[in-house]
Amino acid sequence: MRWLWFALGWVMVALGVIGALLPVMPTTIFLILAVGCFARSSPKFERKLLEHPKYGPALRAWREQGAVSRKGKAFAAGGMAFGFAMFCWGARPSLPLLLGVAAFFLASAIYVLSRPSPMP
């Protein structure tokens, strides 16, 4: 089972790297998931992610406080709004699908925005 967590951790890291390069795909959520996978399989890689100069502080804030920075909240909410607009424009969904996707994005945004900001 440990090798499965390890492989899944690397899949999450790969998705996080892709997210760092693509403007509409998130990065940090995949790295949070990678840290969780590596916590079950490889303390070495878990530590490397938690000590990363750019992403480490956000990962540690989430792990220790369940906190998201104001900048992170703004980017997450903005990305969801942009993604929803692109979905509406590109997919031209039916009303039930539009409402379902809107409800999902709204619930996700409320959750992210309700997280506390990191304590110093």
Describe this structure in words.
It contains six helices and no strands. With 120 residues, it is mainly alpha-helical. Helix 2 (28-39) runs antiparallel to helix 3, helix 2 (28-39) packs across helix 4 (56-65) and helix 5 packs antiparallel against helix 6 (95-114). The chain is 77% helix and 0% strand.
Sum this structure up briefly.
The chain has 120 residues and is mainly α. It contains 6 helices and no strands.
Q: What attributes does this structure have?
A:
120 residues; mainly alpha; 6 helices; 77% helix; 0% strand
Count all strands and give the number: 0
Mean pLDDT: 94
Q: Cα-atom Rg, whole angstroms?
A: 16 Å
Helix content: over 70%
H and E order: HHHHHH
Largest sheet: none
- The 3D shape can be described as globular
Report the uncertain regions: none
Strand content: under 5%
* Count of discrete alpha- or pi-helical segments spanning 4 or more residues: 6
Helices and strands, with pairings:
Blueprint: H1 2-21, H2 28-39, H3 43-50, H4 56-65, H5 70-91, H6 95-114
Helix pairs in contact: 1-2, 2-3, 2-4, 5-6
